[in-house]
C-alpha cells in the first residue's frame, strides 16, 4: 500500500519518537538496526524529513535524531502525503487518470469507500499513540 520509502519513514519516526522521549538522541545506526532498514537509505529519508520539520536532528558527538511534542502529534496520513503524495487518498483504484464521480472506473463506487476509510484511519493514527502502544507491548516494530 505504501512505497518502501514511506514504510521506512513511518517506522523510523515511530522508533525515534519512542527512543527519544526521555530527551536522548538516536543515531542512524541504531535507527536502522531498530527498524530493520538499510542504514544509507534511512539516513537519506530522515535527512529529508528533518529538513521538512517531521523530525529534529542535532550534529556532533551527542547528536542524532529526536522528536519534539509537535512531531508527536503527526499522523501517519501526514507522513504518507509527504512521502507518497495524495494518491492513496484520491487516486483511482485501477490507476486510471480520468476516473471521477462523473466518469467512474468499474470499481470506483466501491473503492471510494475503502479509500475514505483508509484516510480516516491514517488521519487518526498519531505517532504518540504508537509510542504508547509500543511501551505497553501492545504492538512491535521489529521481531
UniProtKB/TrEMBL annotation:
This entry carries the following GO cellular component terms, namely: cytosol
InterPro entries given for it?
Answer: Tscrpt_reg_Rrf2, WH-like_DNA-bd_sf, WH_DNA-bd_sf
Q: Which Pfam families match?
A: Rrf2
A molecular function (GO) held by this record is: DNA-binding transcription factor activity
Q: Which NCBIfam families match?
A: rrf2_super (TIGR00738)
Know the name of this protein? Answer: Rrf2 family transcriptional regulator
Organism of provenance: Chryseobacterium cheonjiense
Amino acid at each position: 500500500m505504501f512505497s518502501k520509502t514511506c514504510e521506512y519513514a513511518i517506522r523510523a519516526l515511530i522508533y525515534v519518537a519512542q527512543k527519544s522521549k526521555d530527551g536522548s538522541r538516536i543515531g542512524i545506526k541504531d535507527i536502522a538496526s531498530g527498524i530493520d532498514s538499510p542504514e544509507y537509505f534511512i539516513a537519506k529519508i530522515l535527512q529529508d524529513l528533518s529538513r521538512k520539520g517531521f523530525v529534529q536532528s542535532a550534529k556532533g558527538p551527542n547528536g542524532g535524531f529526536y522528536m519534539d511534542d509537535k512531531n508527536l502529534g503527526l499522523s501517519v496520513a501526514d507522513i504518507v502525503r509527504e512521502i507518497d503524495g495524495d494518491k492513496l487518498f484520491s487516486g483511482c483504484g485501477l490507476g486510471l487518470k480520468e476516473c471521477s464521480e462523473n466518469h467512474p472506473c468499474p470499481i470506483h463506487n466501491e473503492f471510494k469507500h475503502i479509500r475514505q476509510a483508509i484516510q480516516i484511519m491514517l488521519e487518526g493514527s498519531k505517532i504518540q499513540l504508537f509510542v504508547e502502544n509500543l511501551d505497553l507491548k501492545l504492538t512491535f516494530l521489529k521481531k
